[in-house]
Write a structure and sequence with these properties.
Length: about 160
Amino acid sequence: MKARKVGRASEGKDMVDENERAVEAWKIIDRLNPPITFLSASILMPMKRIEAFVRVNRLEAVKDALEAAGVRGLSCEGVRGYGRQMGRTDLYRGSTYAVNLLPKMRIEVVVRDEDVEAAIDAIIESARTGEVGDGKIFVTEVLDAIRVRTGERGDSALT
């Protein structure tokens, strides 16, 4: 077996060889993988996901308000949780019970950026009772939306 010289000169040359191999490997990867198209579509057609947690008895009012605001689809499900309210106590047959996880409705909609404020205002106005426990709204970015049936992408998949 041949002994290799170890020193500053050989280390520098080895480093250059490693870098050149890495650059060549990335060039091959770039040629094999096409550029990601959904990112460019999301920049042109930005969208937001609005997730609202509201009282169960306010679901119909929120749904009607969103329809009036032009939102054309939503998902909802019953969830249980607590926030600042920290649950409540109930009296049942003379005994007091602590109910820590309160029932709420989680409503989720995806809208174009220009429709976000109208949708948020519709949710707030229809869900507000003025009491603790009215709910929360969270807004997040959506990179892309795809209609499965037609393959439409971006905000055209929302309508």
